[in-house]
Amino acid sequence: xxxxxxxxxxxxxxxxxxxxxxxxxxxxxxxxxxxxxxxxxxxxxxxxxxxxxxxxxxxxxxxxxxxxxxxxxxxxxxxxxxxxxxxxxxxxxxxxxxxxxxxxxxxxxxxxxxxxxxxxxxxxxxxxxxxxxxxxxxxxxxxxxxxxxxxxxxxxxxxx
Length: 160
Hints:
Layout: E1 2-3, E2 6-8, H1 13-33, H2 40-51, E3 52-53, E4 57-62, E5 65-71, E6 80-84, E7 88-95, E8 114-121, E9 132-136, E10 139-145
Parallel strand pairs: 2-6, 3-8
Antiparallel strand pairs: 1-9, 4-5, 5-10, 6-7, 7-8, 9-10
Helix pairs in contact: 1-2
């Protein structure tokens, strides 16, 4: 079982912006390749599918802890990055797939190389400082305790 390093972040907005820019650039290139004819929305969807894979995930709450499981088959632990904020988790990974001639002729291949990116908003605030991530048999498991709710306190008002 491999431990995955996690980075605490204040916000995931910068990562989402960067991904948005990459997809927009590719969608625009697809649009321009048809000299402006066609479906701009379809270009966006095609660019997104071409650039980013979205793994299947499960978010489970049990005894004050969230467990996030993500299917990342064929990915090595060293290629996985997990960033966490009190409200979100971002899972990123790089997939590699190469063909070598010494292993025989390829007749059909659906494996791809690219980037995996998954942003998950959490249903409740978490204590990101106590998050842990482990990777085994193609499954990434992140555990993080739910933050203690801030308690309301009545403040007495004094006349000045």
